[in-house]
Design brief:
By secondary structure, this protein is α+β, with helices and mostly antiparallel strands. It is 26% helix and 20% strand. The protein starts with 9 loop residues before the first strand and ends with a helix. It has 2 domains: 140 residues, ph1033 like fold, CATH 3.10.590; 88 residues, no CATH class. The strands form 2 sheets. Strands 1, 2, 3, 4, 5, 6, 7 and 8 form an 8-stranded mixed β-sheet that branches. It has a two-stranded antiparallel ribbon with strand order 9-10. It is built from 7 helices and 10 strands.
Length: 271
């Protein structure tokens, strides 16, 4: 099996607000934001062959905003229990653990359908498998990127006086990492220098010698949009950018262009 290939299958679990009122969604999302964990059960449609440890993504359907709002892993094989909607029927469920849950989608249904139109992103029932390995890889990458960029779902007005903010818990999970070549970064910095291509800052001028040569490198053509490995020209496709500008560049997808961000800076500082 090739290096980096995903071995755990992935499924879509669905939530339709028109059919099921998730009254505790905000509370649950806040819990996951704090603890990185929420165990529950969820309907898996007619899918009976879902191994323990299967990767799942929760997709909100029905009414806008539609798209991916959560992810995690299954904790059990499918089991039968009383139907969540019809009292006289039986349904299949699977126990799951959320490691990420949002009130609103981080990846919209329209984006999913536009990027990977062959995948059925709006299934009629939960438990449908994503068979396309490239689709799983792309979704893992874009989901990780978006959820890292977004602010916490915990409201800023929440009373935090008596909250114990524990950190440092080790959570083991399988994910896809896009490999980047250190040598390409070195060539880029050697050519352009270590000043930010957006704002012009040189970190060593602010922090002193400890930050000499410290700079991020930005891909002008996002490597996460490639479905497979590709060659990168360090001179034409990479630019040095400071951490702050790099974070702002990726506030949207597709990312802001360097000249576009420079224009925002210029307009803001001219007021």
């Amino acid at each position: 099996m090739a290096k980096g290939e995903i071995t755990v299958p992935a499924i879509l679990l669905t939530w339709n607000p028109d059919r099921f009122s998730w009254d505790d969604l905000r509370k649950n999302a806040n819990q996951v934001a704090k603890t990185k964990k929420l165990e529950t059960r969820w309907s898996c449609g007619n899918s009976k062959n879902i191994p323990i440890g299967t990767r799942f993504f929760m997709v909100r359907l029905g009414v806008e905003p539609k798209g991916i709002i959560g992810s995690g892993y299954t904790l059990s094989k499918p089991f039968k229990d009383k139907h969540w909607e019809r009292d006289n029927d039986i349904a299949l469920y699977v126990r799951i653990v959320f490691h990420m849950l949002k009130e609103n989608p981080s990846v919209s249904l329209r984006e999913l359908q536009r990027k990977l139109p062959k995948v059925k992103w709006n299934p009629q029932a939960s438990g449908v498998s994503i068979k396309d390995q490239n689709a799983i890889k792309w979704l893992e990458d874009i989901w990780e990127q978006r959820t890292q960029e977004e602010k916490s779902t915990i409201p800023i007005h929440e009373n935090t006086e008596n909250i114990d903010f524990k950190e440092g818990k080790r959570i083991k999970y399988e994910a896809t990492r896009i490999e980047r070549k250190v040598q390409a970064k070195k060539i880029c910095i050697s050519h352009y220098g270590s000043s930010c291509a957006v704002c012009g800052v040189t970190l060593s001028e602010f922090y002193g010698p400890i930050a000499t040569g410290l700079i991020h490198v930005h891909h002008l053509n996002p490597i996460s949009e490639s479905d497979s490995e590709r060659s990168v020209d360090p001179i034409t496709e990479l630019r040095p950018v400071c951490p702050n500008c790099h974070a702002v560049i990726h506030l949207k997808t597709p990312p802001y262009r360097i000249d576009e961000l420079q224009q925002y800076i210029s307009e803001h500082n001219s007021k």
